[in-house]
């Protein structure tokens, strides 16, 4: 019996610092390790990207992974959710949500 195909999980990190210097990012390795240990290798986490705190950059990164031919089964975003003026992840993501699920956000 063959194993089922892996699901594709895309990791998007929103960070001014890490977009300028990817070596400062600790999120991608941490999420990959969590997927490996908790999901028993069921996810391919090779698709990762770091973008700055910019609404259009965030939206582009998400829609490329949700609407493209190589769509992801799961998109994880991390960062840009603070209260600083430059943190715009909620504002970027909200218009992309077609069906809201209060309590799961």
Automatic annotation (TrEMBL):
<protein>
    <recommendedName>
        <fullName>MoaB/Mog domain-containing protein</fullName>
    </recommendedName>
</protein>
<comment type="pathway">
    <text>Cofactor biosynthesis; molybdopterin biosynthesis.</text>
</comment>
<dbReference type="InterPro" id="IPR001453">
    <property type="entry name" value="MoaB/Mog_dom"/>
</dbReference>
<dbReference type="Pfam" id="PF00994">
    <property type="entry name" value="MoCF_biosynth"/>
</dbReference>
<dbReference type="InterPro" id="IPR036425">
    <property type="entry name" value="MoaB/Mog-like_dom_sf"/>
</dbReference>
<dbReference type="InterPro" id="IPR051920">
    <property type="entry name" value="MPT_Adenylyltrnsfr/MoaC-Rel"/>
</dbReference>
<dbReference type="GO" id="GO:0006777">
    <property type="term" value="P:Mo-molybdopterin cofactor biosynthetic process"/>
</dbReference>
<feature type="domain" description="MoaB/Mog">
    <location>
        <begin position="11"/>
        <end position="103"/>
    </location>
</feature>
<keyword id="KW-0501">Molybdenum cofactor biosynthesis</keyword>
């Amino acid at each position: 019996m063959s194993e089922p195909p892996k699901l594709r999980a895309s990791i998007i990190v929103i960070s001014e610092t890490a977009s300028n210097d990817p070596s400062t990012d600790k999120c991608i390795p941490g999420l990959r390790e969590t997927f490996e240990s908790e999901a028993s290798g069921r996810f391919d986490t090779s698709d990762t990207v770091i973008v700055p705190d910019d609404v259009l950059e965030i939206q582009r990164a998400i829609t490329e992974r949700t609407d493209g031919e190589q769509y992801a089964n799961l998109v994880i975003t991390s960062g840009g959710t603070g209260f600083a003026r430059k943190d715009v992840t909620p504002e970027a993501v909200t218009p992309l949500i077609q069906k809201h699920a209060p309590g799961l956000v």
